[in-house]
Every structure is written in C-alpha cells, then in structure tokens.
Amino acid sequence: MTVRSAKAAQTTREEARRTEAFFVEGFARKLARLGAVVHPEDGRSYPCPPEGPRRGKHLERVVAAMDACRVHEREVVDEMPLDLCASAALSSRGFLGGRGETRVRVAAFALSPMEALVGGEEPPRADRAGLDRVLREAVGPREVFHYLGVLATAGWEASLAQGPPTGEHWLVALVEPAGGTRFRVHTSGEARWGGMAEVFDPESDGERRGRARAHLASHRDLELRGGHVLLADAAEALGLDEAQVLEAARDLAREERELEVLEVAGRTIIKRRRV
C-alpha cells in the first residue's frame, strides 16, 4: 500500500466529497422526475413523496477515522466525504387520503474509505464487508421492497461489481465513478429492476449528450474531409445508448455545416463532407 502524508491526500478527499454530493443530488433529481415506482411483486405504482428523499450523513464515521489516525486538524473534516445518503419511502393511500403503509423504499448511499483518506493512504476499493454494513443499515421489513444504490467513491472490487448480491425483498446497484460525469452502474440484471437502476446513475441526459458531443467533436477521424465515425462505435466507447449519441451528432451537424449524419448499409455515421 502506498502511503502519503495527510496533506497530500487532500485532492483525493475533496474528490470523494464532490463525487458523493453529485451522486446523491443526481439520485434525488431523477427520482423526482420519475414520479412513481412500481412494486415488483404486487405490480402497483406508488407515488414518490413530493418533498423528495430524506437526506442524511455519517459525520461520526469521519470522527472515528480521524481518532484512529490521530489526525485532528479542522481542515481535514472540511475536506472529507460524509458517506451521504438519501432515502424515500413510497406508501399506499391511507384512510381519508392520508399516507398508508410503506410499500417501497428507494435509497442511495455513498461509501468512502474513511481511514485511508484521513491517513493519506492509497484508497482501497470497497469490499463485501463495506457493502454488508450499508445493507444492514438500509434493508428493513419484509413487507417493504427496497431498491438500493451504493456508490463506492474509490470503486468496487471487481469480483463484487461483476456479481452484485440480491435479496428476497431488495436489490442493490453498485455504482462507481468512471471519470468526469460518467459512472458505472452494476446490477444483477434481473427483471425485478424494471428500469429502476437508472435512478442511481447521477449523470443527466444533458451531461450525456455533452459528453457524446465532445467525443465526436474531437474525434481524429472527423478532422479529415471524407472522414467518418460509426455512432455505434462511439456509443460503445462512451458507455451510452446509440440514440443519445445520435442526438449529439445531429446537434453537432446542425452547427457545423461540413458535417452530416447518414445511414450507410444499415449503420448510422457522422461524416465530414469532401467538398
């Protein structure tokens, strides 16, 4: 393990803090846009609370890590991530239109290697022990179905990301940063997700289009007259749907008259005109 000074770890601490804030804010925004969530067992749709998810943080974990590392500078506290969380309880309609029993819970949690960040060590990837700690906190009664997303600011161990666990009444998406506004979201892929994993990817549609646009605009194959880029290849490189890249390509072609979007042999390309 590479060890640095606590001061040298500043950038990593601040990066983790920014990443968890971006994740939780993106989750809250996408959940509000969703409006309602379908219970995978009873098939009913339950409205998201209008006030949005309840927010929380775990300052005690920062304090415990600082005590363990014998670091007590105030500026370290200000730089550290806080293992932010946000949770929404979705309920049935109760008597006289009031809130009934909770049927679905959707929650996002951030997980950072606190002691490593405080002590200036190279941050390790999150493991099953860290995930189990979050699951113990997050998973409640059997009658409530839980959709959970857990961000590891330093990434997940590869074996865990390749096969996220599942439970009888819960599903968990393992999220990790992939640079810029891009995140990787790992799930079991089973039908119970029903598209819900999308709320745990904090990148907005606008940010995705912007990333696709920047990729195409700087692509070396479009620098030459007659050069072209297959949108399917660009989508694969960016981890996006081809439809999102197509929107970006059309935006770019509208602004640069030398570019055009074409269908060639059943594949969509963006091309720089020869003349």
Can you tell me about this structure?
Helix content is 36%, strand content 25%. The protein has 9 helices and 12 strands. Helix 7 crosses helix 9 and helix 8 (231-238) packs across helix 9 (242-255). The chain is globular, with a radius of gyration of 22 Å. Residues 1-10 have low confidence and may be disordered. The strands form 3 sheets. Strands 3, 4, 5, 6, 7, 8 and 9 form a 7-stranded mixed β-sheet that branches. The chain folds into 2 domains: 7-202, no CATH class; 206-272, Arc Repressor Mutant, subunit A (Orthogonal Bundle), CATH 1.10.10.10. The protein starts with 9 loop residues before the first helix and ends with a strand. It has helices at 10-34, 59-69, 74-79, 114-119, 128-138, 158-162, 205-217, 231-238, 242-255; strands at 36-38, 45-47, 54-56, 85-93, 99-111, 145-152, 166-167, 170-177, 183-186, 228-230, 259-264, 267-272. By secondary structure, it is of the alpha+beta class.
Indicate the topology.
Layout lengths: L9 H25 L1 E3 L6 E3 L6 E3 L2 H11 L4 H6 L5 E9 L5 E13 L2 H6 L8 H11 L6 E8 L5 H5 L3 E2 L2 E8 L5 E4 L18 H13 L10 E3 H8 L3 H14 L3 E6 L2 E6 L3
Parallel strand pairs: 5-6, 6-8
Antiparallel strand pairs: 1-2, 3-4, 4-5, 7-8, 8-9, 10-12, 11-12
Helix pairs in contact: 7-9, 8-9
Q: What is the oligomeric state here?
A: single chain
Tell me the fraction of residues in β-strands, as a range: 15-25%
What is the CA-based Rg, rounded? 22 Å
Spans of 5+ residues with little confidence (pLDDT < 50)? 1-10
The coarse overall form would be globular
Distance between the termini: 57 Å
Q: What's the structural domain tally?
A: 2
Q: Summarize the main sheet.
A: 7 strands, mixed
- The count of DSSP E runs of length 2 or more, i.e. the number of strands, is 12
**Strand-and-helix sequence, N→C?**
HEEEHHEEHHEHEEEHEHHEE
**What percentage of residues falls in helices of 4 or more residues?**
25-40%
Structural class: alpha+beta
Mean pLDDT: 90
Number of H/I helices? 9
